[in-house]
Structure to design on (211 residues):
């Protein structure tokens, strides 16, 4: 059980390149106990999760190595002081070169298929904002850069599906023909900027996108 590749490490935090298909934290049931948090803690004692990436999402993820750093990093995420940049490939041709998706989200209490899902709800949903920029257009798909301004569960996946451009390979939100267009969810956490929890230095981390 190997830990994911390490991008950066010091005495207070560790930044990793999470592969697709690996849970960030344990799930429900014996078959979902293998996860990034357990793999990293087995190699680096005291490592604890600060935020999560979906199982099929790859890329940059940060963990704290002590309680004080965990509190400081968690506050940064809660106060939206962390800059995050994702790459995705979505179905169809996105017309605008850039824009915002501003749609409130909540958990779907009656999902049409197995798995935890979230939906747009203008009455009971929590505010969620995603900024996007088109990187390349092809005949049946578009490569986009995504910068979430909030951190709701499945935010990028739900937002893109809601505007008619589900992410390729998304087996929770995309229709079957779009799921079949890729052998994995084409969503990658490419870059993240945080403030070091002890020194106050601004740190930038990157994981090259492989799709």
């Amino acid at each position: 059980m190997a830990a994911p590749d390490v991008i950066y490490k010091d005495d207070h935090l560790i930044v990793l390149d999470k592969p697709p298909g690996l849970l960030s934290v344990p799930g429900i049931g014996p078959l979902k106990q293998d996860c990034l948090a357990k793999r990293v803690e087995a190699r680096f004692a005291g490592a604890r999760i600060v935020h999560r990436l979906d199982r099929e999402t790859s890329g940059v993820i940060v963990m704290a190595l002590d309680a004080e750093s965990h509190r400081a990093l968690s506050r940064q995420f809660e106060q939206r002081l962390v800059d995050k940049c994702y790459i995705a490939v979505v179905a169809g041709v996105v017309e605008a070169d850039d824009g915002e998706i501003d749609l409130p989200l909540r958990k779907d209490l009656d999902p049409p298929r197995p798995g935890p899902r979230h939906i747009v709800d203008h009455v009971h949903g929590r505010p969620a904002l995603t900024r996007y920029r088109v990187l390349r257009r092809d005949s049946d798909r578009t490569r986009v850069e995504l910068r979430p301004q909030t951190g709701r569960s499945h935010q990028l996946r739900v937002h893109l599906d809601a505007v008619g451009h589900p992410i390729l390979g998304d087996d929770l939100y995309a229709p079957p023909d779009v799921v079949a267009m890729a052998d994995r969810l084409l969503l990658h956490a490419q870059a993240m900027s945080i403030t070091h929890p002890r020194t106050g230095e601004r740190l930038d981390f990157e994981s090259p996108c492989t799709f």
